[in-house]
TrEMBL record:
Protein's organism: Gossypium stocksii
Stored Pfam families: Auxin_inducible
Superkingdom of origin: Eukaryota
PANTHER family xref list: AUXIN-RESPONSIVE FAMILY PROTEIN (PTHR31175), OS09G0547100 PROTEIN (PTHR31175:SF120)
Swiss-Prot/TrEMBL keywords: Developmental protein, Growth regulation
Name this polypeptide is given: Uncharacterized protein
Gene Ontology terms: biological process: response to auxin
Amino acid sequence: MAGFGRRTISINRKPAGHFVVYSSDKRRFVVPLAYLRTKVFQELFRLSEEEFGMPKDGPITLPCDAAVLEYVLSLL
């Protein structure tokens, strides 16, 4: 398609100003970057590092299921 001047769009792209995390049950969440400064996300990242280690090539997985993460996001 590049030869015809068309652009391809990736379905897996995230909006600017957001990051992607996964819950322990493998659900994908797109979260605003502003949430990085919150105490709850800082603690979730700390717990994630303790449980899973630092991600090398894969996504960040948080140590909670999707229901808990949805609840946390609804509070923020």
